[in-house]
Amino acid sequence: MTERPILETRDLTIRFGGHVAVDHVSCSFDRGTLTAIVGPNGAGKTTYFNLISGQLKATGGTVALNGEDITRHSVPDRTDRGIGRAFQLTNLFPTLSVRENVRLVVQSRARKGFDLFSIAESHIELLERADHVLAEVRLIDQAEQIVSALPHGDQRKLEVALLIALGPQVLMFDEPTAGMSVDEVPVILELIRKLKADMDRTILLVEHKMDVIRSLADRIVVLHNGELVADGDPAEVIALPVVQEAYLGKAPEAA
């Protein structure tokens, strides 16, 4: 018996006035896979992400998680049900320490509330979990540092740490290497690669860098003008004329 997709969109659509930003996109995502969602600027990639994670409300169509329609559910509810989102721009608590950022997420998942001023000794298990996550992303040595003082690359690593601390079934990365130096990119890619190795997790990745896509993706989905125009094996999709023209910006080579 074929396993049900963990995440599925059916005819997902959103209009802004007369502009259709995402146009009847139907796509399913299986457990344990990493799918790269690509396309030229303005193709609807981030808007599609926003519809899945709940930042935007669909004009039409549905989003289903584990077979349940979550189209009208709030962002916090989708997070509780297992959708985790890392944003294109870092989304952190800049005045708190690195450890406190992660502890807040661990604490929220443990249903202990957001008590910033609680005595640390009463939350030893939460701190241990936070430190475990920080060690996983190689930030344990910066645990006491204030986030606003972190280099950009370390802030991106911290965002991945927050996502790991949520423990989601579906992890969504919107251009995780954006703004990073050449030296910083491999660290983030290795973190995503480690997450991918956990076959219980499903990863969606919006990324412009083709070398990143080739190194990580099991599958590529291509959006263009809000429509799904290609979906399949990375090598085959990259070779398609529509992708060569729309995404790479060049006409296909003559045979």
Number of extended strands: 10
Q: Main β-sheet: number of strands, strand sense, barrel status?
A: 6 strands, mixed
Query: Which CATH first-tier class of one domain would you pick?
Result: Alpha Beta
Secondary-structure element order, N to C: EEEHEEHEHHHEHEHEEHH
Order of strands, widest sheet: 6-7-8-3-9-10
In short:
With 255 residues, the chain is an alpha/beta fold. Helices cover 35% and strands 24% of the residues. Strand 7 (170-174), helix 6 (185-197) and strand 8 (202-206) form a beta-alpha-beta unit.
Can you tell me about this structure?
Strand 9 (219-224) and strand 10 (227-232) form a beta hairpin. The longest helix has 15 residues, at 152-166. The chain has a domain at 7-92 and 168-246: P-loop containing nucleotide triphosphate hydrolases (Rossmann fold), CATH 3.40.50.300. The model has no long low-confidence stretch (mean pLDDT 86). It has helices spanning 45-53, 75-81, 98-109, 124-136, 152-166, 185-197, 210-216, 234-239, 241-246; strands at 7-16, 19-29, 34-38, 60-65, 68-69, 83-86, 170-174, 202-206, 219-224, 227-232. The chain is 35% helix and 24% strand. It has nine helices and ten strands. The chain is α/β, with parallel strands linked by helices and 255 residues long. The relative contact order is 0.18.
